[in-house]
Amino acid sequence: MAQDLEEKIALLRQFEELLGRKFDGKYQPEGPDELRRKINEMAPRARRLLIEARCLKTMSASPPPAIGGPVLQNVDPFDMIFENYYGMSFIPNMRDMTQQAIGVYLAGGLPEKEKSEPDNREHVVYKQLEVPEKVTLGWLAQNVPIKFWLMAGGIVLAAFTLGIKASAWRFVQEILGLVP
């Protein structure tokens, strides 16, 4: 039994370390593809251990209020390991869950009574994009959906076209003093 707990703890520690390297962009020595493969191979086992320790939480994420967009609700973070939602990564929350599960296993695991009882509680973690103190074009390009950029470009193009058309109107020329 002690060996079983040690194996679970070792697996979760390795998984947490791989997630940390992915989040921090530290792909060496094996490179990003090999790191991704290792995470994908370990994810089902780690997920099962988090469920067993009752540390897996579903999550919700919403875009910044100024941008708007769909709100993700009750998302399994293991489905979003390699995805960012409006620049938000689920990896920090997954690392927290993994560390909590390690704590459960270090404490000896769940008592048999708790293991047999179904867990009817719904775990939801809300995550919202943090707006930086200074909003830059780079931040906007990374966090604003393409449909908003296209819409803004369309508005600018429409205003430019309307300006060109309006310059041919006689009363606009008179207002601007372009008519002799």
Q: Can you describe what's shown?
A:
With 180 residues, the chain is mostly helical. The chain folds into 2 domains: 2-132, no CATH class; 145-180. Helices cover 56% and strands 10% of the residues. It has helices at 2-24, 32-52, 91-106, 112-116, 137-143, 146-166, 170-176, and strands spanning 58-62, 72-75, 84-85, 88-89, 124-128. The strands form 2 sheets. A 3-stranded mixed sheet has the order 2-1-5, with no helix packed on it. A two-stranded antiparallel ribbon has the order 3-4. Helix 1 (2-24) crosses helix 2 (32-52) and helix 1 packs antiparallel against helix 3 (91-106). The chain is elongated, with a radius of gyration of 26 Å. The N and C termini lie far apart (98 Å). The mean pLDDT is 83.
Describe the structure using short key phrases.
two-stranded antiparallel ribbon; 2 domains; 5 strands; mainly alpha; 180 residues; 7 helices; elongated; 3-stranded mixed sheet
The total tally of domains equals: 2
Low-pLDDT residue intervals, each spanning 5 or more residues: none
Largest sheet: 3 strands, mixed
The helix/strand order is: HHEEEEHHEHHH
| N-to-C CA distance | 98 Å
Give the tally of β-strands: 5
| Helix proportion | 55-70%
Q: Number of DSSP helices? A: 7
Strand order of the largest sheet: 2-1-5
User: What average pLDDT do the residues reach?
Assistant: 83
Broad structural category: mainly alpha
* Radius of gyration of CA atoms, rounded to a whole number: 26 Å
Shape verdict? elongated
Strand share of the residues? 5-15%
